[in-house]
Each structure stands twice: as C-alpha cells, then as structure tokens.
Amino acid sequence: MSRKPAHTADSLLDAAAKLAATDGAAAVTMSAVASAAGAPSGSVYYRFPDRSALLAALWLRTLDRFQSGFLAALRIDPPQQAVIQAAHHVTDWSLRNPTDAAVLLAGPDALGSAQWRAESHEAAATRQRGLDDAVGELADRLGYRDRSDRERLALLIIDLPYAAVRRCARAANADLAHTAEAVDRIVRDAMAGAPPAQHLPEPDADAGRR
C-alpha cells in the first residue's frame, strides 16, 4: 500500500491562503509556504514549479470553491428567488470562509497574474465565461432584455454583496453577519415587485452548499 503524501497540493494551498489572508499576497513565497505548512521546500516545488504557479493555483482553487455554490444558486427556480439566493451566497460564503474570502477580495492582480502561464490565464478565463453565461441565462429567465435591466441584475447579485463584504473586510469593528442581513433585505425588496415572485421565502443558507 502506498503512503499518503504528507503534504498535498491542498494543504500547501491552505498554508498559502492563510498567509495571503493574514499578511497579504506579497507574503506568499515558496519558503514561507513551506514553513507555514511544516513542509520541506522540496515538497512545495514538487507540487508547484514556482511562485507564479502556486499563486495561480491558489486563485483558481478559490474561484472554484466560491463559484460552485454561486452557480448553483443562479439556477434555482423561480428565477426571482435565484437572484436572492445568489446575492446571499456571496455574503454567506464569505462569512463561513473568511480565509478564502480574503483571497477572493485580493483579486488576481495581487496574486501576480501578470506572471502566470498561459494555461492559468485560460483556466481563469474559462471560469469567467461560465459565470457570465450563467448570469446571462438568469437574465433571460427573468425576461431581462434591456441593458439597464441586466446591469441591475449584476449590481444585485455581484456588485452589491461583493462591495458589502469588502467594506466589512476593511473595517475592524464591522459585523458581516448583520451586513449580510442588510444585503438580503435590499435584494428581496428589489425583487418583491417582480412578478411572479410574491411572498418570496428567506434565503436558504444551505442552498449554495448542495
């Protein structure tokens, strides 16, 4: 029976994420990750050939972790409830995953995307296209044809909750749980008059996890 590797790619990326969340992306070096994970430097270089590959992998993993629940929320029926649940997912996921949320907020530029290999850029672009397509499909289900309606949708499910999370991350005394409730109310109020959504239920905290 082969032995399970002591230091997997995920365990090394966990260490990298904690460094990025605590000290910023600049703190994520190969030697710092090795030290934080309690791994020899060779283990890090075995999984990731260089720092840019490590940072690209960290970004892509973070996107996958966030988007799995977000994309599921976008496909909920009725579509008005999908809007509410998608916005809720942004704040709820950030509340439950503060380390990953810090990486997401940092963004690809902070993670050295200018030095990433072409395949990493394409992988990130593929994920973005999938997200854009899913948002477009939700807009179609809502009957949104005008550009202003589609922009309103993006504001409700992406820009508003994302800005709320960012504001909380920058304020030492901020309460993301209360902010999440405020975002839920704003989005519910915005969708309350959009037929056929009447008496819309509260966001399902578990919907994005299924």
From TrEMBL:
<dbReference type="InterPro" id="IPR009057">
    <property type="entry name" value="Homeodomain-like_sf"/>
</dbReference>
<feature type="DNA-binding region" description="H-T-H motif">
    <location>
        <begin position="29"/>
        <end position="48"/>
    </location>
</feature>
<protein>
    <submittedName>
        <fullName>Helix-turn-helix transcriptional regulator</fullName>
    </submittedName>
</protein>
<keyword id="KW-0238">DNA-binding</keyword>
<dbReference type="InterPro" id="IPR050109">
    <property type="entry name" value="HTH-type_TetR-like_transc_reg"/>
</dbReference>
<feature type="domain" description="HTH tetR-type">
    <location>
        <begin position="6"/>
        <end position="66"/>
    </location>
</feature>
<dbReference type="InterPro" id="IPR001647">
    <property type="entry name" value="HTH_TetR"/>
</dbReference>
<dbReference type="Pfam" id="PF00440">
    <property type="entry name" value="TetR_N"/>
</dbReference>
